[in-house]
Design a protein that fits this description.
Blueprint (H helix, E strand, L loop, with lengths): L1 E4 L6 H4 L1 E4 L9 E10 L2 H8 L15 E9 L11 E4 L14 E5 L3 E3 L6 H4 L3 H12 L8 E5 L4 H12 L3 E6 L2 H10 L3 E4 L5 H9 L4 E6 L2 H11 E9 L11 H7 L2 E4 L7 H16 L8 E5 L3 H9 L5 E5 L2
Parallel strand pairs: 8-9, 8-11, 9-10, 11-12, 12-13, 14-15
Antiparallel strand pairs: 1-2, 3-4, 3-6, 3-15, 4-5, 5-7
């Protein structure tokens, strides 16, 4: 099979190459998936670059997310799964066979049935962002009837946070940096979209969240946005941060105390198993209900995987995917 891979950390164009490899065989408890679409996330290029290095077992086929069809199963797996459309999550975690290849082998729980109503491109967009969004929303209990603020509502995590929150019965405010991103957040279903760069952003949010304020914040830039968050939250609100900024934030402790705020930090690789399983179940339910939608997609061929990594590293709007062919 053809696969993109790297054997050392470095820039995409220095270390990524496409080679012919022996097609992997599934072991006990595993399935092999013929990959139709491979989704790229920031964690993929950060691992490849060495920014968040992980051990390399000889070589690494990158990308955690993907969608395709199961074509072989290992011992202990129901043979009836052969031919099943699936979406994959954390395929490259402790596994050399990521999704940037014509085939991937993963533990069967990481290959989740993809309904006929969902495209392969949507399936390949779910894993990292949708599961991160789910944990950000539900780690502290139900959100039905609450007001949720999603920072960066046009990004992949923000997009699925909006849709999962709406599916769960919350009112949703999204913040964005410009008109194009505002359109994306509105299309995802946000009840209010605010350009955080404009004067009066806090007033718009407070007015919508009245009388109590925002109950729950999904945050990607705690240092940059904490002043705004503290200005609009209700007493006892939860702020959940899922991304690290170049500089660690300085917390205004007294202001946080006055707000009785709960700060939570999440990282997908360290989620408890029960949280992962619940995320898969809830995402699957939302998919079945037609509540999750695609972001704008930029497509690259397998031979263009390095360029695709550069696009994600350059903060391309929407979702960047690779088509293994």
């Amino acid at each position: 099979m053809r696969a993109a891979l790297y054997e050392r950390h470095g820039s995409a164009r220095e270390v990524l190459r496409v080679e012919e490899l022996e097609r992997p065989e599934p072991g006990p408890g595993e399935v092999r998936v013929r990959i139709e679409v491979s989704g790229i996330n920031p964690t993929d290029w950060k691992s490849r670059s060495g920014g968040t290095p992980r051990p390399i077992d000889g070589f690494q086929v990158p990308h955690h997310d993907g969608a395709g069809v199961i074509d072989a199963v290992g011992e202990g797996v129901d043979p009836g799964r052969v031919g099943q459309r699936v979406w994959l999550w954390l395929a490259a975690s402790a596994n050399r066979w990521g999704t940037a290849a014509q085939w991937s082998v993963v533990p069967e729980r990481k290959a989740v049935p993809l309904p006929a109503s969902a495209s392969a491109e949507l399936g390949a967009s779910l894993g990292v962002p949708a599961m991160t969004a789910h944990r950000c929303l539900f780690a502290d209990g139900p959100i039905r009837g609450k007001t949720v603020l999603v920072a960066g509502g046009a990004g992949a995590v923000g997009h699925f946070a909006i849709e999962l929150a709406k599916h769960a019965g919350a009112r949703v405010i999204a913040t964005v940096s410009g008109p194009q991103k505002a359109d994306l957040a509105a299309k995802a279903g946000a009840d209010l979209v605010v350009n955080y760069r404009e004067p009066g952003a806090a007033d718009q949010i407070r007015s919508f969240a009245a009388p109590g304020g925002v109950d729950h914040v999904v945050e990607l830039a705690l240092g940059a946005n904490l002043e705004l968050d503290l200005a609009v939250i209700a007493a006892g609100a939860v702020i959940v941060d899922y991304a690290a900024e170049p500089q660690n934030p300085v917390l205004p402790v007294r202001a946080c105390m006055n707000a009785n705020v709960l700060l939570r930090f999440v990282l997908l690789y360290r989620f408890p198993d029960e949280a992962l399983d619940q995320a898969v179940a809830d995402i699957s339910a939302a998919l079945a209900d037609g509540a999750l939608t695609e972001l704008p997609v930029t497509r690259f061929s397998l031979d263009e995987t390095a360029a695709a990594h550069d696009a994600v590293e350059g903060a391309a709007v929407g979702k960047v995917i690779v088509l293994p062919g």
